[in-house]
């Protein structure tokens, strides 16, 4: 069986270092925040070319705090995309603001920047692009439009650790960048985790207070805050794993290039890395009009796949109150019926990529003949 994800193999490859780091935290009793988390904040912020890092318990919390720090609340509008994981939109809803969608560009699967201006109203406060699958959104026009209209840019970089846009690491191109360390992400904790990074000291200070009950110092609450602190153990684990992220990212990119070569001649679309993009392939998504049959047949061959995402956010029952309908975002809707994520993780082998690609070829040939 070729699994969609293999977290165990990665753990075994670094087990002695991880085990030692975890035991050190257990001995230290710094279980919530603490010196390992603070060291990780510095190291990861620097890694993403940002001055400040605020470690939190999930990527969703990072998005929530970023919006709050930017002063977003009820009555405000935030422009984002419906082709994303639900958390992007949930974080906007948590603040009481209204998510406003624009469609994606069908080549990059990220925000279609030509649609942003038409979506701006006097209530718009922020633009939240999503660096989906590990590919950056087209940030230059987004930042330019935001500056012209006085809007804040919050990057959802949950799938984009190490991703670059025109040679710059994401997260520090907009005003605040939000990362997730959910176990399956490119940099994954052994539990939940997230971080907001920024070059703005005021935003940093506000988010630092908000994640820890709005305290300026202990039991002095300046703001109505949250319990969004990162675990000490996760900080220690992530420090160890960050040292491998360059090498793991290179492995993903080399698997992607290998898939690209083997799948090139088939009647499917392989991912397009845009010219401005250093794509980190959090997800390697192909597109096929035969997606569902392909998925079922691969499963029969013991190859697990995923779909990111089968239902766009504007068609989710939970967000029906936003008032969108089927047909509102044609590219998003089309891609959601065709996208199929093949196994992708650093520990995947050359032989496995060969096997998967060969099976995709065989299945497509059989479907064509039928
Ligand atoms: C994973 C993810 C999130 C949320 O991160 P959590 O750590 O799971 O809360 C937000 N946005 C996107 C695009 C994601 O993939």
Cα shape: globular
Task: Kindly report the oligomeric state of this protein.
Answer: single chain
Tell me which ligands are bound: pyridoxal-5'-phosphate
What is the ordering of alpha helices and beta strands? HHHEHEHEHEHEEEEEHEEHHEEHHEH
The major beta sheet can be summarized as: 7 strands, mixed
User: Radius of gyration, Cα only, in angstroms?
Assistant: 21 Å
Low-pLDDT stretches: none
CATH superfamily of the largest domain: Type I PLP-dependent aspartate aminotransferase-like (Major domain)
The portion of residues forming beta strands comes to 5-15%
Question: What would you say this structure looks like, in words?
Answer:
- This protein has helices at 7-13, 15-28, 35-47, 59-69, 86-94, 116-119, 139-149, 201-210, 232-242, 245-263, 291-300, 330-338, 350-369, and strands spanning 52-56, 77-80, 98-101, 124-127, 152-156, 164-165, 168-169, 176-180, 194-198, 215-217, 220-221, 277-278, 284-287, 339-342.
- It folds into two domains: 7-101 and 111-242, 3-Layer(aba) Sandwich (Aspartate Aminotransferase, domain 2); 245-369, Aspartate Aminotransferase, domain 1 (Alpha-Beta Complex).
- It has 370 residues and is α/β, with parallel strands linked by helices.
- The longest helix is centred in the C-terminal third of the chain and has 20 residues, at 350-369.
- The site of pyridoxal-5'-phosphate has 15 residues, from helix 4 and helix 5.
């Amino acid at each position: 069986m070729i699994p969609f994800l293999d977290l165990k193999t990665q753990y075994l490859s670094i087990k002695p270092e991880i085990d030692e780091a975890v035991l050190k935290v257990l001995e230290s009793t710094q279980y919530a925040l603490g010196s390992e988390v603070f060291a990780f904040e510095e190291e990861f912020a620097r890694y993403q070319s940002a001055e400040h890092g605020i470690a939190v318990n999930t990527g969703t919390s990072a998005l929530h705090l970023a919006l709050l720090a930017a002063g977003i609340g009820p009555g405000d509008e935030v422009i984002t995309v419906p082709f994303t994981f639900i958390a992007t939109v949930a974080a906007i809803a948590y603040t009481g603001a209204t998510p406003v969608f624009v469609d994606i560009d069908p080549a990059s699967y990220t925000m279609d920047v030509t649609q942003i201006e038409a979506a701006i109203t006097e209530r718009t406060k922020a633009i939240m692009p999503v660096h989906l699958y590990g590919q950056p959104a087209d940030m230059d026009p987004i930042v330019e439009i935001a500056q012209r209209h006085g809007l804040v840019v919050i990057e959802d970089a949950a799938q984009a650790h190490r991703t670059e846009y025109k040679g710059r690491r994401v997260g520090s191109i907009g005003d605040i960048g939000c990362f997730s360390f959910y176990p399956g992400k490119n940099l994954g904790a052994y539990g939940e985790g997230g971080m907001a990074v920024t070059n703005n000291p005021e935003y940093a200070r506000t988010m630092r207070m908000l994640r820890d009950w709005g305290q300026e110092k202990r039991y002095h609450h300046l703001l109505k805050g949250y319990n969004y602190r990162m675990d000490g153990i996760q900080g220690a684990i992530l420090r160890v794993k960050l040292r491998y992220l360059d090498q793991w990212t290179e492995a993903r990119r080399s698997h992607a290039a290998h898939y690209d070569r083997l799948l090139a001649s088939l009647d499917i679309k392989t991912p397009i890395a845009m010219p401005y993009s250093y794509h980190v392939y959090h997800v390697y998504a192909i597109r096929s009009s035969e997606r569902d049959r392909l998925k079922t047949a691969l499963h029969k061959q013991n190859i697990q796949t995923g779909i990111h995402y089968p239902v766009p956010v504007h068609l989710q029952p939970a967000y029906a109150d936003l008032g969108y309908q089927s047909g509102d975002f044609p590219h998003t809707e089309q891609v959601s019926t065709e996208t199929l994520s093949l196994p992708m993780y650093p520990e995947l082998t050359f032989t496995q990529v060969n096997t998967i690609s060969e099976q995709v070829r065989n299945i497509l040939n059989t479907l064509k003949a039928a």
